[in-house]
């Protein structure tokens, strides 16, 4: 049972010379570009307003544990 619970942590044992690119560079670049696009082209309230990005992310993150438990 513990092996199943801690199996996602086995990703940390992977050793490769370019793993840091996948772990750090790609997320940093994509998040920076996404935030820049939202601020450049998004309307006022698109991030924190009603039906904004944060509101929708909170909705999705509140539903995800149910899917994880069901799986």
Please tell me about this protein's structure.
The protein is mainly alpha-helical and 71 residues long. The chain has one domain. The protein is 63% helix and 0% strand. It has 3 helices and no strands. The protein has helices at 2-5, 19-41, 53-70.
List descriptors:
71 residues; mainly alpha; 3 helices; flat
Mean pLDDT: 88
Q: Mind describing the biggest β-sheet?
A: none
DSSP summary: helix tally: 3
Helicity level: 55-70%
Which residue ranges are poorly predicted, with pLDDT under 50 across at least 5 consecutive positions? none
Number of strands: 0
Shape: flat
How many separate structural domains? Answer: 1
Instruction: Calculate the terminal CA-CA distance, rounded to whole Å.
Output: 15 Å
Order of helices and strands: HHH
Class derived from helix and strand content: mainly alpha
Give the strand content.
under 5%
Radius of gyration of CA atoms, rounded to a whole number:
17 Å
Oligomeric state of the chains present here: single chain
Reconstruct the topology from this structure.
Blueprint: H1 2-5, H2 19-41, H3 53-70
Short description:
This protein has 71 residues and is an all-alpha fold. The chain has three helices and no strands.
